[in-house]
Specification:
- By secondary structure, the protein is mainly beta.
- The protein has an 18-stranded antiparallel barrel. Strands 1-9 form a two-stranded antiparallel sheet. Strands 18-19 form a two-stranded antiparallel sheet.
- The radius of gyration is 23 Å and the shape is globular.
- The protein starts with a helix and ends in a 9-residue tail after the last strand.
Length: 579
């Protein structure tokens, strides 16, 4: 965990420690798409919303997931679901009743290591427990150049070498904690390398160094504390990622960018959940020295509020807002966080108008899910930045019509076949939706989009098919069709701004009217990504991955990326760069 995150978390503990409720607190389940798919699957097939957590706000705490799982009717499970059910409970055994046998290993090593299936080393006392696990990720493969008649990336050898350590636990039955540190050297596919060079930051990571000819060397850290102020109010503070929404993508806050320093307040009463997030983010990557010399000036502030309501047993709707604020004063110092930014009450726009606008970027929106049929879910999000009805009626493509949306369906046990799951999702964002006057106040962190990885100015159609024929073997495939507009170097030698890159100011836009999705260097992208994974032991996986990506810009030649990678990973989720 970074020093600033530790300081912030300790300060919160010192201030509120005396108020803590004597309730067992557990760390969250790290964001991992395959694990969260299993939890999502159990919730939708159960036919009711979870009474312990709202699925639109991720990650979930272990002490929320375990009671939900134990309340399910296991007679309705397939034998593969029985395995997944046991996997989830074994992985969070400390949140199960004290006399439970969940997590026990058949044979510990030297009566010290792997007393529990999920823990390399653990201490379990009534008022203290700690779980320590090594993290390893080794991958290797080959990327081939474009197909015949196309100019693509040069052939390269791909690899990833990650070593790390993960620790979680609780103290005194009141405070839970989590920490992960790891170091990685890797050569990623050409499209990931090109994107990293373009934005001068590796998606999902922080500061990077060059490694050999085409690789990167980087350090990953995250960690937090969690505790209850009241039985209904939970606080989590530290350095991590947060994802909002039910979809494969999020149009408001995703896990695409780097970890950030945050305080999260979750209040859950009756059928309501109210989420507050306050975060300190970075406008630019640490190596982005073109703007300012003092890296402290990269800081900016982010606030998020969401009120969610369970409607009956099968539906949930939420309304939310975000505010991003940042910039430099005349001395070149970053703006401090406005005090009214700490207002925990939705909506902040009224407060902003009352105190005088501090020129922060604000977006409003709503999200929903509805389990309208056994095994079927409809979900979506809508994000509004700016909209004028009269100008919309003119259909003149005014640049200020800024909004984005998502809708999708999940179908579990397709046509009655156990553990065959399908997800179909569409996403779009109008040009300049996530831009603001400066990069300090755009919807970015560390040079990466906080929402969709394509930024703005795009349409996208996604399909995800998952199949688990036997307990330890699973397959998943993702298919994408996207149409988006890229910027390019104009005839005057300057780079254009057609509204796709949220790092750019909308004041440098190309035109006021005539704007449309896909403007600029209109590009079509087709991507197919197939992953096979086998679990040898608890959280020890062997993977094989094949992907094909075809890029078709109108201004340059089309090309295709194609690669195959095999990997072994231990106590870490699969890294699946998918743009």
């Amino acid at each position: 965990m970074k020093i600033s995150a530790i300081r912030g978390s300790l300060l919160i503990l010192l201030l509120v420690g005396p108020l803590l409720e004597a309730l067992g607190q557990r760390a969250s389940i790290p964001l991992n798409e395959e694990v969260y798919h299993l939890i999502d699957r159990f919730e939708v097939l159960s036919g009711r919303n979870s009474p312990t957590f709202h699925s639109a706000v991720k990650p979930y705490r272990r002490d929320q997931v375990v009671p939900f799982l134990q309340g399910l009717d296991q007679n309705q499970f397939s034998y593969v679901d029985d395995f997944n059910y046991a996997y989830l409970l074994n992985d969070s055994w400390e949140a199960v009743a004290e006399d439970s046998l969940w997590g026990n290993s058949q044979k510990a090593i030297w009566n010290t290591f792997y007393k529990k299936k999920s823990d390399f080393l653990m201490v379990n006392e009534p008022r203290f427990d700690v779980h320590l696990n090594p993290v390893l990720y080794f991958a290797g493969g080959n990327e081939r150049p474009g197909l015949v008649g196309e100019s693509g990336t040069t052939q390269r050898t791909l690899f990833q070498n990650t070593r790390g350590l993960e620790v979680r636990g609780q103290i005194g039955g009141k405070v839970g904690f989590y920490s992960f540190i790891g170091t990685t050297q890797a050569v990623f596919p050409g499209y990931v390398h090109d994107r990293t060079e373009q934005y001068r930051g590796l998606p999902g990571e922080g500061t990077i160094k060059n490694f050999k000819e085409n690789g990167y060397d980087f350090f990953t850290s995250k960690g937090y504390f969690t505790f209850n102020l009241l039985p209904e109010i939970n606080v989590r503070a530290g350095y991590d990622k947060i994802k909002i929404g039910e979809g494969e993508r999020s149009m408001i806050l995703s896990d695409h960018a780097n970890n950030f320093l945050f305080t999260e307040l979750n209040t859950q009463v009756w059928k309501l959940q109210y989420t507050n997030i306050w975060a300190k983010m970075m406008a630019f990557p640490a190596q982005f020295h073109d703007y300012v010399s003092d890296t402290k000036a990269y800081s900016k502030w982010f606030a998020f509020h969401r009120l969610g309501l369970n409607i009956g047993k099968k539906a949930n709707i939420g309304v939310f807002e975000t505010v991003v604020y940042g910039g430099l004063d005349s001395a070149g110092h970053a703006f401090p966080m406005p005090l009214d930014f700490l207002n925990p009450i939705i909506f902040l726009r009224g407060a902003e108008l009352e105190v005088g606008s501090y020129d922060g970027k604000m977006q409003l929106g709503f999200d929903w899910k509805w389990n309208f049929w056994p095994g079927l879910q409809w979900y979506g999000q809508f994000v509004l930045d700016e909209f004028h009805l009269e100008l919309y009626k003119q259909r003149n493509g005014w640049w200020g019509q800024k909004y984005a949306g998502q809708t999708g369906f999940k179908y579990f046990n397709v046509v009655g076949l156990d553990n065959l799951d399908l997800q179909v999702e569409t996403n779009f964002a109008r040009p300049y939706t996530y831009n603001h006057r400066t990069a300090w106040s755009g919807m970015t962190h560390f040079g990466q989009s906080l929402a969709h990885p394509l930024g703005s100015n795009f349409y996208e159609l996604l399909g995800v098919l998952r199949f688990q024929p036997i307990p330890r073997l699973s397959f998943s495939s993702k298919a994408q069709y996207a149409l988006y507009g890229q910027d390019f170097i104009g005839e005057d030698g300057d780079e254009t701004n057609f509204g796709s890159d949220p790092m750019k100011s909308y004041e440098t836009r190309e035109r006021d009217t005539g704007n449309f999705i896909g403007q600029g260097n209109t590009t079509r992208q087709i991507m197919l990504d197939v992953l096979a994974s086998y679990q040898l032991k608890h959280n020890l996986f062997l993977d094989g991955r094949l992907w094909l990506r075809k890029l078709m810009p109108i201004m340059t030649e089309s090309y295709t990326d194609m690669a195959f990678v095999v990997s072994m990973r231990w106590n870490i989720g699969y890294r699946r760069d998918f743009y």
